[in-house]
Amino acid sequence: MLRSLTSAVTGLKNFMIQLDVLGNNLANVRTLGFKSSRVAFSEASTQALSGVARGFGGGFGKIKQIGLGVTISSTDMNFEQGALEFTGTSTDLAVRGKSFFVVSDGTKNRFTRAGNFFFNNNGFLVNSGGLAVQGWRANASGEIDTFAGLREIFMDTTLTSPAEPTTFAIMSGNLDAGLGPIAQVLSSAIAFTLVADGTIAVGGTDLADLTQNIDIATNTLITITGNKSDGSDVSTTFTYSGGDDLDDLIAVINTAWSGDATAVLVDGKIVLTDDAPGESSSTISMSAVGMNIPTFEKVTDGFTGRVTTSRIVFDSLGESHNLILTFTKEKAVGEWTWLASFTENETFGNGNTGTIAFNDTGNVVSFGVDGAETGILINPNNGAAQFSVELDVHGSEGFTGITQYASDPTVFFREINGRPLGSLLRFTIDTTGIITGIFSNEENLTLAQIALAEFPNPVGLLRAENGLFDTASSSGNPIIGRAGEQFTSSIISGSVETSNVDLVRQFTDMIVTQRGFQANARVVTTADQILEETMRLKR
Questions:
Q1: How many alpha carbons fall within 13 Å on the CB side of residue 367?
Q2: Hey, which residues does 95 pair with through a beta bridge?
Q3: Would you say the C-alpha torsion 143, 148, 153, 156 has a positive or negative sign?
Q4: Which of 148, 281, 389, 493 could bond to 231 as cystine, CB 3.0-4.6 Å?
Q5: DSSP 3-state of 356
């Protein structure tokens, strides 16, 4: 009789413990990184009522035993993955996998799944309890030495990215093959004609026989003025001495514009054509007493096949300079010249010109820099050091360089290095835990990497306060490593892992626990009634 009482008492006691575990699970249903627990029951020791009796044929009968109640063999933690909740805060981190974050109080490492971290006022990445998140820091070149010991993750908000001079520029795009140079052409507005019959005059026609003659006389002075293509003034005169013809007048014009433009008579009109193609300031006008000389008009604009592109380059002090490249089409088929220039007082340490030539399929066959074997040498003239910029016009890595096809010009700087001094704007954390700084000069630099830990037997860890776990002999020693390399776990930035408590399971277990407690309580009351009846038998 007393055995039933003691067994029931163990049931009452241990179901109370299970209710405590269930209550703790439900209390932590919103605790970040919380891992639920369950109670593992096992039968307590038993009592044999008699030995094993031999039966017929020398065999053994059944053993007679009575159990002495229940005990708790363990409270097991459930390390199943909790759901990830997006927060948008970059320092909120979640582990997808079985690893743990490593944090330190300065004396020992502890472990957690709760990744609600933040940078404190001293620049250290810490958890809500102020423990420093552990990992590895990068050197000035952004390299991480994981063989070094773990350190606190530190963010220096005053960190800068040093300035670097431009050393190369890769170019792409097209130079229009049909973009040929054109010379400017000026022509008299109307043709010179013969007064006799109105026919078109020729070069040998006497000026006095022209329809334009009003009352030309011997020693009449014809004034010729205008500008050459570069804008310089031209002023000369032609004296009619009797018998002079249009060819004589044109010869004076050619003398005045010698080396710059040439005049000819075309269908009775004096046509002045620049000797060199390109933009031009050429003009011409003539006047004389006794002649009605026609005015001149521009019939063809001078045009240079020119394409211009520009890009900012940087010197050793990080100051920017606007580098301008101008490509000019030459008369030779497939040949262009180029000129480098700046908008300020920068100068060049070697030639800032060169040539680029294309074959009949539109591809570059040669590119040269006048006065240098390689790039253009630039003097910034602001205290910074000279720097050389290599110009690459050839295609590489799946990209085309500069081409020459009969299409719109599109030359541009596809890739260029160099940067000014940059300040830290923000940072990102990738799935391997690498923290990358984003600087104002568009430089990305690795700053640190967050470490993870795994255990041979994680259910053997000791649960501590604030979502922390401590090692124990049952858990084994921690194995430190990196996400995505030593471990298959990954780190998710901007999210936290929520509790893995299953409410439906907890409420179901709570009902079972309640019924188990009631049943054991009924055993106590029933045993009490039997004892009471036994006492009455004595009376």
A1: 19
A2: 491
A3: negative
A4: 281
A5: strand
Q: Compute the residue count for the chain.
A: 539
Topology, domain 185-300:
Immunoglobulin-like (2.60.40)
Tokens representing 467 are 């979502």
Q: What band does 190 get if pLDDT is binned at 50, 70 and 90?
A: very high
HEC per residue, 81-92? CCCEEECCCCCE
Same fold, 168-179+304-416 and 185-300: no
Phi first, then psi: give them for residue 176, nearest 5 degrees: -65, 115
Provide the β-strand partners of residue 291: 213, 288
- How many Cβ atoms sit within 10 Å of the Cβ of residue 321? 22
Tokens for 281, please give them: 């300031």
Reading the block at residue 220, the tokens are 């009449």
First to last CA, the chain: 19
> Mean pLDDT across the stretch 85-99?
96
Question: Is the pLDDT reported for residue 1 higher than 60?
Answer: no
**Rounded mean pLDDT of 447-466?**
95
What is the predicted pLDDT for the residue at 75?
Answer: 87
Average pLDDT (458-465) is 93
Domain ranges of the chain: 2-79+500-538, 86-144+438-497, 168-179+304-416, 185-300
Tell me the C-alpha to C-alpha distance, in Å, between residue 93 and each of 102, 127, 138, 220, 466: 12, 11, 20, 99, 16
CA distance 158 to 137: 16
Read off the pLDDT band of 491 (50, 70, 90).
Answer: very high
pTM, two decimals, is 0.69
Checking if the pLDDT of 279 tops 90, the result is no
Dihedral angle, C-alpha 115, 128, 120, 161, nearest 10 °: 0
What is the separation of C-alpha 497 from the centre of its chain, rounded to a whole number of angstroms? 28
Question: What's phi and psi for 254, nearest 5 deg?
Answer: -65, -35
Compute the average pLDDT of residues 468-472. Answer: 96
Residue 12 corresponds to which tokens in the numbers above?
Answer: 């009452």
Q: Taking a C-beta distance cutoff of 8 angstroms, is the pair 441, 312 a contact?
A: no
